[in-house]
Write a structure and sequence with these properties.
4-stranded antiparallel sheet; disordered N terminus; alpha+beta
Length: 255
């Protein structure tokens, strides 16, 4: 074979080999592009069964993070709970209950302040009101007033203690009636009263009598008393041992 012909054939073979190699490289590059494109498409679809485990975990972590953020936003912050007087527990119902209890307590104190406390002997004065007819044979009424001389309102409720003291002899304590006490609120300078029901008795009577000289009046729920001079004279039938006495004391503000 001539040398030139051999070189031409060799050149053609080399060119063909070069074309085959180029085609193979192009085919490989094309397959690689298809593979990368398929991988990208799979990773962008969370519902794909061909998703890699790492992608599924990342998606789950993202959802968990979103749920955690949602729960955190719904829960009240400690500072918000504290501002309503709660204990910082984040419980709206507990805070509301505490607030309601505090409001009720505050309202109770305000009412107590408005009505005042119990009237004390030290902040009152006492004196005689309606006078009995000690010459009558009928049951009589003697009234005693009690005046608030303090600087604030106070409340009286119940029976006063009444002790009759003669100039000579033993004193007697009057029994209580069956009337129900009615509380009365006294502003500074105001007064109320109670009544003593009694049976006058002649001085020469053979009945057991007492001739009062002074009367000790103790306001309800107090231990200190007022000492009033008995100004009406006469004598009162002593019924301290009677089952249904006609001489007794009524509660304050009972008329």
């Amino acid at each position: 074979m001539p040398h030139r012909t051999a070189l031409r054939r060799g050149s053609k073979a080399a060119a063909a080999a070069t074309l085959v190699a180029a085609a193979a490289l192009a085919l490989t590059a094309c397959d690689g592009d298809k593979s990368e494109s398929a991988g990208a498409s799979s990773s962008s679809s969370p519902s794909s069964s061909s998703s890699p485990p790492s992608a599924s975990l990342d998606a789950q972590a993202s959802r968990n993070s979103s749920e955690a953020d949602s729960v955190t936003k719904e829960a009240p912050s400690p500072s918000h709970s504290d501002s309503r007087g709660g204990a910082g527990s984040g419980s709206g119902s507990a805070s509301s209950a505490a607030h309601a209890q505090h409001s009720a307590s505050t309202h109770g104190k305000s009412s107590a302040s408005a009505s005042g406390g119990r009237c004390t002997t030290a902040e009152m004065k006492a004196g005689w009101g309606a006078a009995p007819d000690m010459k009558s044979d009928d049951q009589q009424t003697a009234a005693v007033w009690l005046k608030n001389t303090g600087s604030s309102a106070c409340t009286l409720s119940g029976f006063p203690g009444v002790r009759l003291k003669p100039a000579n002899g033993s004193a007697i304590d009057l029994p209580r009636s069956f009337r129900k006490p009615v509380p009365v609120n006294l502003k500074p300078g105001e007064d109320t009263s109670f009544t003593i029901r009694l049976l006058p008795e002649p001085l020469d009577s053979d009945q057991h009598i007492i001739k009062p000289s002074t009367v000790l009046v103790t306001p309800p729920n107090e231990t200190h008393h007022f000492q009033l001079k008995w100004p009406y004279g006469g004598a009162i039938l002593d019924q301290s041992t009677a089952t249904h006495p006609g001489t007794f004391v009524n509660p304050v503000n009972a008329g």
